[in-house]
Amino acid sequence: MTWAARAVLPFFVACAVLASAPCAFALPKVAVGSKAFPESWILGDALTELVEQSGTAVAEHKKNLGGTEIAYQALLSGNIDIYAEYTGTISEVILKTASRPGLPEMRRALAGAGLGVSQPLGFDDSYALAVSPGAAARFGLQRISDLKAHANLRMGLTHEFLGRSDGYPGLSARYRLEMSDARGIQHELSYDAIASGQIDVTDIYTTDPQIEQLNLTLLDDDLAFFPRYDAVLLYRLDLDTRAPGALAAMSRLVGGIDGKKMTHANGSVALHKTSSETAAHALLEDVLGAGLSPRTSTPGAGSRIAQNVARHLELVGASLLFAILLGIPLGIAATRSRTFAFLTLTGAGLLQTIPSLALLAFLIPLFGIGVFPAMVALFLYSLLPIVRNTLTGLTTIPSSLGEAADGIGLTRGAKLWKVSLPMASPSIMAGIKTSAIINVGTATLAALIGAGGLGNPIMQGIALRDTRLLLEGAVPAALLALLVEGAFYLLERAVVPRGLRIFARVS
Amino acid sequence: MIVLTNVSKSYGPARALYPTSFTVDSERCLALVGSSGSGKSTLLRLILGLIAPDSGSISIAGEPMEPGRAQALRLRMGYVIQDGGLFPHLTAQDNATLVARQLKWPRERVASRLQELTGLVGLTFEHLHRYPAELSGGERQRVGLMRALMLDPPVLLLDEPLGALDPIIRARLQDDLRRIFRELKKTVLLVTHDLGEAAFLGDEIAVMHHGALVQKGTLESLSREPSDAFVSEFLNAQRPRWADGLGSP
Fold first, then answer.
1. C-alpha distances out from residue B209 to B37, B40, B82, Å
2. What is the DSSP letter of A124?
């Protein structure tokens, strides 16, 4: 086998294995989305189960999408068909209007985008400010207006709340608050922070079970700043023609879930570590009563891990393959022109400095959510080490040998394939290995845009403060990185010519 | 035949070669001597077309060396480099047959040519499967010679081929080189530091100094009528010192 064939073959074999995707189904598919907090997961699981039970379609739950903007973009682009949203969020974040429209107006405004809004599910999950029992007692806090006199209270606010017009910016303007210490914090962590006394005030959702558990005081919204956040279903209008009956099956939830039922379901997930699927099933039994067939078992941890690992490998493998196919030619081209080398390395270097989350968010308008944009992001991150190491490998070949290759009459192509690339192969392989290992780590963030992989249990583990779930993602990810390291050791033996290894030992 | 007509080369302000003309006749060997930096290597690289001259022209076996046809013309020249210039990732055999395989020679032709050359340069079949790092310096140089002879080119260019070898191996290779040049009737340009080697292998010797060809002729004519002080000094410097102690020459 020629050197080139030996070099390329393992990658194609690896790619073929990774690319084996699930086959097509006869039933139409419905993709249910959910945002990154337990209540959204439970509602997503409940909708999924309702579709499955009705037999009208095959449902897939794209769980844990990073935020409202990501879920909404996913809905618009058809990556998901439906998800549970809140009326206040629709008016403030999606329609960006302060006029507090009613349901008919919302429907009119969204119909243009091909979207529909259901009747309310029954509960109102509003934003509210909560204070620790200690602070409430000490300062006699009851209303949001009371905060004005205590500007040095420490606030820990979720990042979305800090950015939304119906969040802190609007709130502080309406109440003329000038708090000295308002910082961003992850929602679930804010409960730990307030319980341990590190912050005094936080934003909460009124159906959070921790309010009762921690005996927090909800401040009265005395200037009526917050709109209503009635839970509704936000869906694509083409859903009913594509999967007849599916929307009707899901609409059985409408009007059935009151605040108490929702808070209870949230508590079983957030406080008692029940899976969101189980909590959703219990919620459905609670809401719909009998007539629900026994729940089909959710996949066990073993097959869940296998599924996540397979998806993770698919993300890393495909992005790496394309980075190799583009990166090596770019590295070769860079040896021919200093300007091109400078531009390429600077460009690839800049890409690497963009934080992963920002890059993912940036790619959503272009490619939507899911596996593809995640692969694009990983591909962009993989480029620099491969381009740089190809260039380094080629430019560090002793000049006498480069001259020998020309002098004995090799053509440009023969010199590249028979001399330069084989001699640069140890450096190129090292670059590919670096990219692969970085990718195994970075791919965990792909879960934030619904691409799945080992990031799923990690993100959910963080959200639930569930170490076991977190380790279910983190341990396989770490093992995978080691495995990649080992695989490259073997691959190097296959790709790097034996003579070079002897040469390296001797010299 | 190698013909140079008024060939000159500068690197920026530094003059590497003043306008130079000379001819190496067919089936003759010209040895190019001179100290380091005298322009010998520049001359060789010009003839190979690795660099282009600022002025003048070069022709190899009747064909002009021009940028567009350099690669094709190099196939008519065998090039032997100091320490062999072998590619470390290829076995001796793969090094020797690299260009023949590029030209898509049939397998049998490559094999029979390889067999011929192995005997000619004094190697055994067993050497062919070793990598350069597993060969001695002399063996590497013999593989380099095989590679240069593979296509049976009319012209051979040797750039200090024996520079890095110990004296006994060097002497053996000098014997073999002289036999091969004569047997195969090659037109040879040999660059060397060593006047003894130049006299032993070359029909004529050309002395280079500061980028100019100062004298060309047999060793006898050079020592009888050195054209300038440098030539006498160069000749004197390489007179074997140990011979003085043995009495009169």
1. 8, 9, 21
2. B
Quickly list H helices, A199-300: 210-213, 239-242, 246-250, 259-270, 276-288
Q: CB-based burial of residue A24 (10 Å sphere; 0-12 exposed, 13-18 middle, 19+ buried)? A: exposed
| Single-letter amino acid, residue A348 | A
Q: Report pTM.
A: 0.72
Tokens in use for B142? 């013999």
Could you say which residues of chain A have pLDDT below 70? 1-26, 290-299, 505-507
Q: How many CA atoms lie within 13 A of A188 on its CB side?
A: 17
- Contact, B198 vs B205, CB < 8 A? yes
Instruction: Test A503 with B81 for CB contact under 8 angstroms.
Output: no
Q: Which residue of A has its CA nearest to B89?
A: A499
- For chain B positions 133-192, those within 8 Å of chain A (CB to CB) are 133-134, 147-148
Closest chain B residue to A420 measured between Cα atoms? B87
Instruction: Compute the Cα dihedral for A482, A486, A489, A495 and give only its sign.
Output: negative
* Subunit contact A423:B79, Cβ cutoff 8 A: no
pLDDT digits (tens, 9 = 90+) for A227-260: 889 999 999 999 989 888 899 999 999 998 988 8
Q: Residues 242 to 301 of A: which have CB under 8 A from any B CB?
A: none
A484 close to A98: Cβ distance less than 8 angstroms = no
pLDDT at A22: 39
Cβ-nearest to A499 among B48, B90, B102: B90
| Chain centroid offset of residue B181 CA | 11
Q: Is A506 on the interface with B (CB under 8 A)?
A: yes
The number of C-alpha atoms within 13 Å of A458 and in the hemisphere containing its C-beta is 21
Q: How far apart are CA A163 and CA A332, in angstroms?
A: 45
Q: Are B205 and B222 in contact (CB under 8 A)?
A: yes
- Cβ within 8 Å, pair B88-A404: no
Record the tokens describing residue A301, joined without a space: 């941890």
Q: Do B79 and A408 touch (CB under 8 A)?
A: yes
Within 8 A by CB and 6+ apart from B126, the residues are none
- Nearest CA to A404 out of B163, B170, B45, B103 is that of B45
Nearest beta carbon to residue B71 from set A409, A499, A507: A409
Which DSSP state fits A369?
S
Chain B residues closer than 8 Å to A400 by CB: 81, 85
Q: Which of B89, B90, B105 to mutate to test the interface with A (most CBs of A within 10 A)?
A: B89
DSSP reduced 3-state for A99: coil
Report the residue of chain B nearest A418, measured CA to CA.
B98
Please state, as a whole number, how many other Cβ atoms lie within 10 Å of the Cβ of residue A448.
22
Q: Is B213 exposed, middle or buried (0-12, 13-18, 19+ CB in 10 A)?
A: buried
Does A499 contact B50 at a Cβ distance shorter than 8 Å? no
Question: What pLDDT was estimated at residue A4?
Answer: 55
User: A112-147 pLDDT, tens per residue?
Assistant: 999 999 999 999 998 899 999 988 989 989 999 999
3-class SS string, chain B? CEEEEEEEEEECCEEEEEEEEEEECCCCEEEEECCCCCCHHHHHHHHHCCCCCCEEEEEECCEECCHHHHHHHHCCEEEECHHHHCCCCCCHHHHHHHHHHHCCCCHHHHHHHHHHHHHHCCCCHHHHHCCHHHCCHHHHHHHHHHHHHCCCCCEEEEECCCCCCCHHHHHHHHHHHHHHHHHHCCEEEEECCCHHHHHHHCCEEEEEECCEEEEEECHHHHHHCCCCHHHHHHHHHCCCCHHHHHCCC
ipTM over 0.85: yes
Q: Is the distance from CB of A316 to CB of A439 less than 8 angstroms? A: yes
C-alpha span between A188 and A271 (Å, rounded): 11
